[in-house]
Amino acid sequence: MFKFFKSFSDTKDIPEELLTPKQEKFSLLVSSGSSYSDAYREAYKATKMQARSVHREASALHANPLVTARVNELRKKAA
Predict the structure, then answer these.
(1) pTM metric for this prediction
(2) Is 28 helix (H, G, I), strand (E, B) or coil?
(3) How far is CA 8 from the centre of its chain?
(4) I want to staple 29 with a disulfide (CB 3.0 to 4.6 A). Which of 33, 37, 39, 63 is the partner?
(5) Burial of residue 73, with CB atoms counted within 10 A of its CB: 0-12 exposed, 13-18 middle, 19 or more buried
(6) Residue environment code for 20-57, b if the CB has 16+ CB neighbours within 10 A, otherwise e
(7) CA distances from 51 to 4, 30, 54, 60, 78 (A)
């Protein structure tokens, strides 16, 4: 499984199909300047979650290699 993720870290374009719609929305929001927590709240409709739970889940989501690569790709396109 790690070879799969590593193969995409070496490429420039991450296919959107590899991300869920919520992961894509999170990536778009983070790349446009939202904090991880704010992006998670909006993408996942987490209004009833505690702040520490949102922070934990947002951090875990950003640790996903495909999400991280997508955020970096979107930031580069915006620059």
Answers:
(1) 0.80
(2) helix
(3) 14
(4) 39
(5) middle
(6) eeebbbbbbbbbeebebbebbbbbbebeebeeeebeeb
(7) 32, 17, 5, 14, 29
Structure tokens at 18: 């590899």
The count of other CB atoms within 10 Å of the CB of residue 71 is 21
Average pLDDT of the chain is: 85
Torsion of CA 69, 75, 77, 79, to 10 degrees: -150
Q: Give the pLDDT band of residue 78 (cuts 50, 70, 90).
A: confident
3-state secondary structure of 35: coil
Q: Residue 30: pLDDT band by 50, 70, 90 thresholds?
A: very high
> Which of 13, 17, 8, 20 lies closest to 65, judged by CA?
8
